[in-house]
Amino acid sequence: MKGEGKSNNYGPGGGRGPGSGFAMGRPVEKATDFKNSLKRLMGYLKPHRAKLMMVFFLAILSTVFNILSPKFMGAATNKIAEGLMNRMSYFTNIEAAIERGADIEFIDQLRAQPVPGIDFNYIWQIVLVLIALYVISSLFNFATGYMMAGVAQKTVYKMRKDANAKLARLPLKYFDSHTHGEILSRITNDLDNVGSTLQQSLTQLITAIVTLVGVTIMMLSISPVLTLIAIITLPLSAAVTVAVAKKSQRLFAARQAVLGELNGHAEEMYTGHKEVKVFGHEKRSIDEFDEINERLYDAGWKAEFISGIIMPLLNFVNNIGYVLICVVGGIFVAIQRIQIGDIQAFIQYARQFTHPIVQTANITNIIQSTVASAERVFNLLDEVEEIPDKEDAKIIEFPRGEVSFQHVQFGYKEDNILIKDMNIEVKKGQTIAIVGPTGAGKTTLVNLLMRFYEIKGGNITIDGTDIRDLRRGNLRNMFGMVLQDTWLFSGTIRENIAYGRQSASEEEIVAASKAAHADYFIRRLPEGYDTVLDEEASNISQGQKQLLTIARAILANPAILILDEATSSVDTRTEVLIQKAMARLMEGRTNFVIAHRLSTIRGADLILVIDHGEMIEQGTHQQLLEKNGFYADLYNSQFTSSFRRLEGL
């Protein structure tokens, strides 16, 4: 597991997710086929196009109202400046008349004129307009968020529903070739990423583009020269961003690699902590952790520092632009080319001008990461499904349990045939043992029987009917399974036993438990049959788990039983109980036993010896021993090793 990165607080693209301040410079995950994946994602949005149009329209209106605000504030500033200038002019004219010795009558006439003041009625009207603009903009913004949240969640709901339905139609080989974490990530992390982006980033992208266009128009309307000064700083900002981003991406990639190494080491040490303590490697483990942790610290602070200086550098460049705008704007005001309120409005627009550019770049990265997430979901949806049941598929109402393999061929890969020509005839009530070394193909035989995999040639029949002509649900209902790896879900013991037959009564559940020798230990538990099993059923022993699975199989009353020897990890007393329960379960059924300890299948009606996918021997226990072939060697080696272990006691 070393070097394998675990989940962290960053999204698939290395950022912190939409709407949370995506840091420039972090590595961005990209889709292999961006165009088609985006097209398919848009297909899921198509049923909501009316709402999307309304969302876009409201987002544009909200942004437009925000863009208009600085213009009105500039007009208010002009009116205040005009009033102040008129007032200053009034007193200046009187003083000038006095200084040049004007007639008293003329000076009195000047003084008799009303003193100019600020037109507060006009200012108050502008304040009311601004309040209205901000309120309307906020309402539109709220409506946009509300509607987009609904669209996003309905879209993800449909995608998650399609993914879950797809998983039910996928063959077993898909789950064998993909880890559980990888599959779960498709319908959790990836779809959450899609939902977050649809809910936030799309409207943010619209807002950013409209703001950029609107602000540019408003700046040009005030002064093309000042607009040019504001735009000149953009190439410098872009150069700074690109230079720092390239450096920080390398550092973030290095940090992620070391983080994966640290997570892998931690997982190894904590899952195998007993072995670490037994062999006295605690110090070595801690030293290795400290060494990796030191490298992670070194890579982490460099990555965060380099990424963190982007905004201060951009602010520095932008401030240079603001200084130039103020200097040139001041000159324009002095020569009465523009008014002072226009300068105030222009500076506000200049501050709004750079933000949507940075925001658009960030959202573009987020969308790339989101399309990559959607692509992984689409890859799942495009997986080859199980061959569907025939429209005229048959149902065996009362199965007897007669099984026949006729010239069966199978291979996991087209060019590698594992089972070449298998022929087996099993009568009702017979016990068939399947033996062979690890990887010989024992479990494959069972998977073919239940049609988890499709055969390449030949036929498998149950009661004379080809399994490919049966409904899969009906076929698998004929089987009961007791495996070495028990599976119990979080729920009561009663619910776990009744999983074999949901309609079972309390009396039937208890009867099945008694037949499986499980009733005694169940009643000794504090809550009896209502005892809730925790995650992985860790509050009962391994042997007790096995007895519950046997009770579940007894309750299901299958025609054909599949047993994977399940007594290797229990004590002798529990093993005796399990053997008795399994013997009770096997009565009157057709049984396929995957055997590991050959001493347990000496009474089987037929023993199939499989090696490298081929059935190399078959017969009873005695017949196979007399052949003195592969089975005899396998049996004698187990017997000899057991005898030697006894001698050593």
Automatic annotation (TrEMBL):
Region (Disordered): 1-22
Pfam families: ABC_membrane, ABC_tran
Biased composition range(s): Gly residues: 11-22
Listed GO CC annotations: plasma membrane
CDD domains from the UniProt entry: ABC_6TM_Tm288_like, ABCC_Glucan_exporter_like
Topology in the lipid bilayer: Multi-pass membrane protein
Keywords: ATP-binding, Membrane, Nucleotide-binding, Transmembrane, Transmembrane helix, Transport
GO MF: ABC-type oligopeptide transporter activity; ATP binding; ATP hydrolysis activity
Domain of life: Bacteria
Residue ranges, compositional bias (Low complexity): 1-10
Residues annotated as transmembrane: 50-68, 122-151, 205-222, 228-245, 316-335
Subcellular location, record wording: Cell membrane
UniProt-recorded name of the protein: ABC-type multidrug transport system, ATpase and permease component
Phylogenetic classification of the source organism: Bacteria, Bacillati, Bacillota, Clostridia, Eubacteriales
